[in-house]
Design a protein that fits this description.
By secondary structure, the chain is α+β, with helices and mostly antiparallel strands. The protein has a domain at 5-71. Helices cover 35% and strands 29% of the residues. It has two helices and four strands. It has helices spanning 52-71, 86-100, and strands spanning 5-9, 12-21, 27-34, 40-45. A four-stranded antiparallel β-sheet has the order 1-2-3-4, with helices on one face. The longest helix is centred in the middle third of the chain and has 20 residues, at 52-71. The protein starts with a strand and ends with a helix.
Length: 101
């Protein structure tokens, strides 16, 4: 199995290490940190067939997806039934169904 390593991609430095994860699921996982990000990430389990190239690709894909998700606007959740009596919630749902017709 390969050891930890450091690499650069798109102006970011990634520091990758294999460490034991104590949370569920336990086992040996790839952990990584990225410059200008205070969080460390445990992206996936380390396996014997890992290569630096395969780990780099997976980590970059994981982090780029994370950045995409963070950049999306927050979608507010509607909790129509919270604080409403059951009859009012049913009436509101019926009104929505009638508007769709």
């Amino acid at each position: 199995m390969i050891q930890g390593f450091t690499f650069e991609n798109n102006g970011r430095t990634y520091v990758c290490t294999i460490e034991e994860r104590t949370a569920v699921p336990a086992g040996m996982f790839w952990w990584f940190a990225v410059t200008n990000d205070q969080q460390r990430y445990s992206a996936f389990e380390a396996i014997s067939s890992d290569t630096q190239k395969s780990v780099k690709a997976r980590i970059v894909a994981f982090y780029e997806n994370l950045l995409r998700v963070r950049a999306e606007p927050v979608v507010p959740r509607n909790h129509f039934s919270r604080g409403r009596p059951p009859a009012a919630a049913k009436a509101a749902a019926a009104a929505v169904e009638n508007d769709e017709d």
